[in-house]
Amino acid sequence: MTPGQLLLFAMGGLANAAYLFIVAAGLSLVFGALRVINMAHGSLYMVAAFVTVVIANQVGAGLGFWAGLLVAVAVTGAIGGVVEVLVLRRVYGREHLVQLLGTYAVSLVVAGAVRIVFGANYRTVASPIPGHLNLGGYSYASYSLFMIAAAIVIAAGVWAMLYRTNLGRNIRAAVADPDLLNATGVNVTRLYTTVFVIGAGLAGLGGSIVAPSQAIGSSIDTDVLVLAFAISVIGGLGSIIGSAVGSLIVGMVISFGLVIPATNPFALAFVFIIMTAVLTVRPRGLFGLPEN
Amino acid sequence: MLKVEGLNVRYGKSHVVFDFTVEVGDGELLAVLGRNGAGKTTTIRGIVGLLAGASGKVSVGGRDMSAWPAHRRTREGLAYVPSGARCFQNLTVDENLEIAAHANGADHSWTKKRIWELFPKLEPLKNNLAGGLSGGERQMLAVGRALMGNPRVMLLDEPTEGLAPVLVQSIGTLLGTLKSTGVSILLAEQNHQMALRVADRAAFIEKGRVVEVLPAARARDSEVLHRILGV
User: Fold this and answer.
1) Are the CB atoms for A202 and A23 separated by under 8 Å?
2) If B5 and its partner were Cys, which of A206, A237, A242, B57 is the partner (CB 3.0–4.6 Å)?
3) Predicted complex: ipTM over 0.95
4) How far is A171 from chain B (nearest CA, A)?
């Protein structure tokens, strides 16, 4: 493998890691604060991807994409708020199986609604940032570089929200002791809704950003959910740094796994081999905290 | 200031606190004494509003809080210092105090500066994580966090638990200081000697029921302590 090829595949891995991080960060944030594994996270991602594609194709690529992104994030945030109030408030504090079944039921409802509203056909949208850049003799889609930059900005934004705002301080306190936070004067019920809306918004952001880079169909919810879970298990559920590192590992493994002929058929399997290894050696993931 | 009428707490089918009724006046300290498992912690958590199975009337300054969730009771002046010196261990000392200050509105009579004056040992540790503090330091932080809410009533659950004798004495002195500022205090304690040294009255509970309420001077009587607490 030449250095140019190495760079090419690494950039592919980074682009994979970028959208996966945005999705996994939302999943991880919700688990960290609410201790709920959201099986409907991939559904929100799918809804956002469809909303973005439909609006972008109606309005026209370019401006249409950005309008679609804003609407998609607002829609998924709103769905998240409704799901939190109607479903999650009934399963907080109960065993994970009940929470899994509750959010799985939501994912089935959303998947059905998506098929009814958007149909079962795959859809595509033109890239809002067309063109290519040449690096080391290889051509890179400008949009892939945008995805990487967007993920870095979102990672910095999530970090700043958690460590530089009152909301983030309250979220971190809720992770440690929600009862005490309640008795300190913070409305934890409202905080949980806010966190879930942010998590849903991140799923939506991931779905919107990925839309111009791949065909959007009604199975992308499970595809991304499986990878986001793998990332969260590897990095540690509840850890944003873990999500970033997990996304990098998974993104790179998929990228290099697919291009090397000998490993091509097993590229995804390597992700789960790593996940199994992490679960065996360090069950809470590379950066995960032990559950209270 | 604090009035609790007919507080009952149930965990499912188990009835654990029965008709707890007390009044604590401005600047008064009522000690709630009882053996381990008598229901002291459950009673306090019921007053704070943290238990779904609690019923009865809780009011502060004549304002009925019974239907309010815990965070609203805290914002209206009811502060809770839980047992075990509980703090947000993944937050710094500074953040632990800020969280209460920010949550509790416009009254800023208690500031971090006043907390540092009250607990000088805490200020150099303000950027340390609360989880790395000693038991005594965490207890100071727990009290400081409650004060940052500018409370009119403080509910303390075994604040001397696990502390060295010298720190127990400091907590007693601190409670005396807080009383003098007009704060009403309800103190659940196993350490009856410390509690009765600073209390004005004592309510003794057994198996979730108040069996006797006495002035502290009378409650210090060894015959009373032997009869009710078995010490």
Assistant:
1) yes
2) B57
3) no
4) 11
